Amino acid sequence: METILSLKDLTKKYGALTAVDNLSFTIKKGNVYGILGPNGSGKSTTLGMVLNVVNKTSGEFAWFGGNIKTHEALKKVGAIIEHPNFYPYMTAVQNLALVCKIKDVPKDKIEEKLEIVNLLDRKNSKFSTFSLGMKQRLAIASALLNDPEILILDEPTNGLDPQGIHQIREIIRKIAAGGTTILLASHLLDEVEKVCSHVVIIRNGKKLYSGPVDAINASHGFFELQAKNMQLLQELLIAHPGIENVSAKKNVVTAILKEPMDAETINEYLFEKGLSLSYLVKRKESLEEQFLELTNQTPSA
Amino acid sequence: MLRLLEIEYHKLRYSRSAKILVLTYFILITFIALIASIEFNLGAINFRVADQGIFNFPYIWHFNSYIAALLKLFLAIVIVSMMSNEYTNRTLKQNLIDGLSKKEFIASKFLTVMVFSLVSTIFLFIVSLILGLSFSDFTEVSIIFSDMEYMIAYFVKLTGFFAFCMFLGILIKRSAFALGFLFIWWILESIVYGVLKWKVFRDSEIADNIARFFPLESMSNLIKEPFSRLSAVQTAATQIGSEIDKDYGIHWDQLLIVLIWTVIFVFLSHKLLKKRDL
């Protein structure tokens, strides 16, 4: 698979503070990537560095194999950063026409892209009259003008109302379905979970995990069980070779799996040993639980 | 290069304030012609400014380039705000992300500065030519096109001044503060000159020799005031017994100083932009 962007030991220091710490990962063509991390974890700084607006302290990054200059590479990239930035006195079309000039692409796609983000009816309104949601959608249209190899979105739904969030996510899903590589930075788990196939999790500028979303920890899920004789239940579970860890909370016993196992299998096993269950469910940890586990945070009540 | 100019033209053409200021500037230049119609009627004496020889070739090149240069502040506002607005609107960040390099960004701004200076120079040339042809006592081609170095000096002076404005716009990021800083800088130069002249190097030319290297001073030194060169003023001066002995010419070393400042300002703008995180 073609490599679009690769980072190697990329580091950014602001004085004593290390915002991005030896970050390395690779973006391959055709996947939808998420950069996940709490606020202030270095997501935007990382994107800023590869987008030529923040100077790196050390390390390397390379666009499209590294054979072209960054600003030339960026002409093949579509990116929006936290806040949509346009010239307030220009209309939507005039702003997009300027982007076309900068990116060296013909202007004939402006209407088509405005259509995608549902702004065609406001194309001749000044940018300053737009709502935040509209500004954000215009930013997406602008990022799509060159039919980019990769679309980079930094917190695209930040500050939007639920309807705005929904619209943006629909648009992203549509674009992703068209096969465009996407890199989405967000502190919102469900956003990443819903859209992305791969995820890079960072905290305090350090990479905690990178890989497919469904393999965040190589866990096989866990069972939650209940029986009359909780003591025996726990003993039997600990004795089973396929179970890694058993813990009890209130009236529920949680058994984490070492290897793939069906609920039926464990039910049969326990029944053979003379125990009948009153409650059995197999679950996989949600991305949120895994994320919190990875970032060592406890869920706030 | 054309692409960079197009980009900047696109940014400016839709900005109402920029359009108004640029228009005002060029209209004001044509207003130099109005000086021609100033007349005094002091009893029996009818005094008409146009008859005092200010529109005589080649003096008109000197006079008009000096007067027109006073108006450069209007374009300076446009230039300062076209730099600092990129910061306040955060469009500079977006421009870079869209694939403009920092070098290209500075280049597009500086090219615009050059175009402004060039258009202003050509415009002034045309206005002066028309005025001269209407009022000058001498209209031989050789006289008309003598002293053309005033036009070159005018171009260099504007370019240098606008490059300074461009640098201040980037340095300070806010147009109002940048213009304020320009004013403060001007006062500072005067103070430093004053201190050098009246305290440090009394009764010598050293202070002037140092001051002519200051950025604003070097620009204003390019075209010296033309008033005392008028024959009426000269005559009056002779009558009261003082001789005005001044060199009104354009000096190549002065041009060079301004050109060097221009290079420094463009270089510093680029350096500053490269160093900053946006």
TrEMBL record, chain A:
Record's keyword annotation contains ATP-binding: yes
Keywords attached to this entry: ATP-binding, Nucleotide-binding, Transport
Keyword field contains Ribosomal protein: no
UniProt-recorded Gene Ontology molecular function terms: ATP binding; ATP hydrolysis activity
ABC transporter domain ranges (all copies): 5-229
InterPro entries named in the record: AAA+_ATPase (IPR003593), ABC_transporter-like_ATP-bd (IPR003439), ABC_transporter-like_CS (IPR017871), P-loop_NTPase (IPR027417)
Pfam families assigned: ABC_tran (PF00005)
Domain of life from the UniProt record: Bacteria
Family: Belongs to the ABC transporter superfamily.
PANTHER family found in the cross-reference section: ABC TRANSPORTER, ATP-BINDING PROTEIN (PTHR43335)
Name used for this protein in its record: ABC-2 type transport system ATP-binding protein
Species, as recorded: Salegentibacter holothuriorum
Taxon lineage: Bacteria, Pseudomonadati, Bacteroidota, Flavobacteriia, Flavobacteriales
Automatic annotation (TrEMBL), chain B:
Gene Ontology MF terms in the entry: ABC-type transporter activity
Membrane topology: Multi-pass membrane protein
Localization per Swiss-Prot or TrEMBL: Membrane
Transmembrane segments: 20-40, 60-83, 110-131, 151-170, 177-196, 255-273
GO cellular component terms, semicolon-separated: plasma membrane
Keywords tagged on the record: Membrane, Transmembrane, Transmembrane helix
Domain of life: Bacteria
The protein, known as: ABC-type transport system involved in multi-copper enzyme maturation, permease component
Organism: Salegentibacter holothuriorum
